[in-house]
Automatic annotation (TrEMBL):
One GO CC term, this protein: early endosome
Taxonomic superkingdom: Eukaryota
Species of origin: Lynx canadensis
Keywords: Coiled coil, Endosome, RNA-binding
One example GO MF annotation: RNA binding
Cross-referenced InterPro entries: PPP1R21, PPP1R21_C, PPP1R21_N, PPP1R21_six_helix
Name of the molecule in the record: Protein phosphatase 1 regulatory subunit 21
Record's keyword annotation contains RNA-binding: yes
Low complexity composition bias: residue spans: 95-104
Length: 780
């Protein structure tokens, strides 16, 4: 790695050095050219100066000549002035002389005129030459200044480049030293690599021999044991579980959640639109509170009242579709079965729109025929009728494409995979068309509402209803726009996600194969979860077999004892209740007994007072008293169940007066003995029943365990068969992996040899370049 980095750095430095060298040559050429240009300009400036000096000399000579001519003109004028009076005096005598003077004057005038013209021409030439000289001089001076500035800049650039070159030379010398050190290390590494390559070649030979033997063995096993390759046929490959793409599932669930929210908003807006349209029919053009509306509007209102039964299922279908997309499933068109239900709900809603469309158009025509309708309002109604037709047509188009998308989950031959992308793009186009139609409806209905509000007969109820309809139409427009933009933003992802499916295949062939694949996926996930569970510390197999019966009996006895304890607790609670009941009964009997004893004592006192009466009279009174006592004791002892002993006690009371305490003890003992006997019998029966129940439960458990062991053995046989097939598949994969490893190792050895040769060549080039750089530095 270090050698590769150094080579990369050296290559970069070499490239920079070559670039800087080329730039330096270009700059040198530019400087030389500019110096040549400046020298040429200087020569031109010298030539111009020389020409300017010549012109100045000519100018000086011309001015001198002009001065001479001016003096001569003055002299001639003076002579003319002197000769004129003489001519006047001698007119008569000197006509010949005057003619001569006139001729001379005319000659002088012509000569003077020529000299003046020549002077003007020379002045003009001088002025033009002066101006041209000044202009050329200014241009040359500005050009000289710019050239000097450029030369200074070039010189600064040259100085910077020389500094940079010196720095790069120093860096290259340092890098050269480092590279020499690294070349030595690389040579050592190359020697080590040669040794390693020899070892690898030996290992490769051994592995090749081993893998060739294994390959022959595996090929023989495959030819004998493997029945077929399921990835070869698309029908079998569709049943294979694809790789779980959690990111894809989360993305699809997020998209479905957004679509659900948009559909919910759209459903709310549609419900409001149909409901407020129904309210408007009841108000305009005839108010139902004042007069009866037309039968057409009554039927239309009745149909609109049923809108919730057609619109609500759209939200429910989308909700079911969202709930069907989970993290554990595979979401493609073949597995989204709930899309069919959404398509059916959309079809029912479109049937509803078709049903109400003629009534809606007739209702708008009825509004146009009313006396309150103006020409502008009639035009808006016509536009709205066209918009309603377009809205129904757009929904029909959208339902057609949604139905086509639902076909792969129900009818595999209904839609080809090559047409998926075109159907999805058409769905996006239909949604945009729906948005455009809703914008037109919103625009035209807004215009209609403003016209109706300006009518003198417009009521507050109509105004509020129109505002509500407008708000619902605006909500529909916004919802349609959101859905259209959402679908257009995600249509590329939908098209790209259609290839999600089994490996080495075009996708799922039929919904049945997709459903089977999902079942296999669940089983595989359950199997992986079972494998992830930590294994408990197991008992040795022999000890487990020895303690199996003991454990079964102990668990059965434990459960039987628990049931017995539960039953005994219930019986104790019942006995406690019966104890309280009998204690209350005993208290009542005691009170009655005390009253009866008091009455008997009173009777005895009354009999002791009448002792004078004879024995004949005592017997009947005793008999009567005994009868009354017997009746009273019977009345007191009626609620007691054991009547035999009580009867004996009551009969003995006729003959003699027993002791109260002995009688109570006798009753108590009788009841206690009876209770003890009954409880012992009840406990015996309960213990027998619990024993029989425990035995039956143990037998049923043994039967269930036997059935479970039978099922476990069958499952183990199935698992063993699956393991055999899995091992066969693993054998094929290991064979392929070994072949791939052999090819990779051979490629790796080739690449190592190539890298070694390249490194040697690079080291040689570095040495040559370092020698060349050192020679150049010495020459510099």
């Amino acid at each position: 790695m270090a050698s590769a980095e150094l080579q990369g750095k050296y290559q970069k430095l070499a490239q920079e050095y070559s670039k800087l060298r080329a730039q330096n040559q270009v700059l040198k050429k530019g400087v030389v050219d500019e110096q040549a240009n400046s020298a040429a300009l200087k020569e031109q400036l010298k030539m111009k100066d020389q020409s300017l000096r010549k012109l100045q000399q000519e100018m000086d000579s011309l001015t001198f000549r002009n001065l001479q001519l001016a003096k001569r003109v003055e002299l001639l004028q003076d002579e003319l002035a002197v000769s004129e009076p003489r001519g006047k005096k001698n007119k008569k005598s000197g006509e010949s002389s005057s003619q001569l003077s006139q001729e001379q004057k005319s000659v002088f005038d012509e000569d003077l005129q020529k000299k003046i013209e020549e002077n003007e021409r020379l002045h003009i030439q001088f002025f033009e030459a002066d101006e041209q000289h000044k202009h050329v001089e200014a241009e040359l001076r500005s050009r000289l200044a710019t050239l000097e500035m450029e030369a200074a800049q070039h010189q600064a650039v040259v100085d910077g480049l020389t500094r940079k070159y010196m720095e790069t030379i120093e860096k290259l010398q340092n890098d050269k030293a480092k590279l020499e050190v690294k070349s030595q290390t690389l040579e050592k590494e190359a020697k080590e690599c040669r040794l390693r390559t020899e070892e690898c070649q030996l290992q490769l030979k051994n592995l090749h021999e081993d893998l060739s033997g294994r390959l022959e063995e595996s090929l023989s096993i495959i030819s004998e044991k493997v029945p077929f390759n399921d990835t070869k046929y698309s029908q079998y490959n569709a049943l294979n579980v694809p790789l779980h793409n959690r990111r894809h599932q989360l993305k699809m669930r997020d998209i479905a959640g957004q679509a659900l929210a948009f559909v919910q908003d759209l459903v709310t807006a549609l419900l409001n639109f149909h409901t407020y349209t129904e309210q408007r029919i009841q108000i305009f053009p005839i108010d139902s509170a004042i007069d009866t509306i037309s039968p057409l509007n009554q039927k239309f209102s009745q149909y609109l009242h049923e809108n919730a039964s057609y619109v609500r299922p759209l939200e429910e279908g989308m909700l079911h579709l969202f709930e069907s997309i989970t993290e554990d499933t595979v979401t493609v068109l073949e597995t989204t079965v709930k899309l069919k239900t959404f398509s059916e709900h959309l079809t029912s809603y479109i049937c509803f729109l078709r049903k109400i469309l003629p009534y809606q158009l007739k209702s708008l025509e009825e509004e146009c025929e009313s006396s309150l309708c103006t020409s502008a309002l009639r035009a808006r109604n016509l536009e709205l009728s066209q918009d309603m037709r377009k809205m129904t047509a757009v929904f029909e188009k959208l339902q057609t494409y949604v139905g086509l998308l639902a076909l792969p989950s129900t009818e595999p031959d209904g839609l080809l995979r090559t047409n998926y992308s075109s159907v999805l793009t058409n769905v996006g186009a239909a949604l945009h068309g729906f948005h455009d139609v809703m914008k037109d409806i919103s625009k035209h209905y807004n215009q209609k509402a403003t016209i109706e509000h300006e009518l003198p007969t417009a009521t507050q109820k109509l105004i509020t209803t129109n505002d509500c309809i407008l708000s619902s139409v605006v909500a529909l427009t916004n919802g349609a726009g959101k859905i259209a933009s959402f679908f257009s933003n995600n249509v590329d992802y939908f098209i790209a996600s259609l290839s999600y499916g089994p490996k080495a295949a075009s996708g799922f062939i039929s919904p049945l194969s997709a459903e089977c694949m999902l079942q296999y996926k669940k089983k595989a996930a359950a199997y992986m979860k079972a494998l992830r569970k930590p294994l408990l510390e197991s008992v040795p197999y022999e000890e487990a077999l020895a303690n199996r019966r003991v454990l079964l009996s102990s668990t059965e006895s434990r459960e039987g004892l628990a049931q017995q304890v539960q039953q005994s607790l219930e019986k104790i609670s019942k006995l406690e209740q019966e104890k309280e009941h009998w204690m209350l009964e005993a208290q009542l009997a005691k009170i009655k007994l005390e009253k009866e004893n008091q009455r008997i004592a009173d009777k005895l006192k009354s009999t002791s007072i009448g002792q004078g009466v004879g024995p004949a009279q005592e017997n009947p009174t005793g008999v009567n008293a005994g009868g009354q006592e017997e009746a009273s004791t019977k009345a007191v002892l009626e609620p007691i169940h054991s009547t035999s002993l009580i009867g004996i006690l009551t009969r003995t009371s006729d003959n003699e007066v027993p002791d109260v305490e002995s009688r109570e003890d006798l009753i108590k003992n009788h009841y206690m003995a009876r209770i003890v006997e009954l409880t012992s019998q009840l406990q015996l029966a309960d213990s027998k029943s619990v024993h029989f129940y425990a035995e039956c439960r143990a037998l049923s458990k043994r039967l269930a365990l036997a059935e479970k062991s039978k099922e476990a053995l069958t499952e183990e046989m199935k698992v063993a068969g699956q393991n055999i097939s899995r091992l066969q598949d693993e054998l094929t994969t290991t064979k392929r992996s070994y072949e791939d490893q052999l090819s990779m190792m051979s490629d790796h050895l080739c690449s190592m040899n190539e890298t070694l040769s390249k490194q040697r060549e690079e080291i040689d080039t570095l040495k040559m370049s370092s020698k060349g750089n050192s020679k150049k530095n010495k020459s510099r």
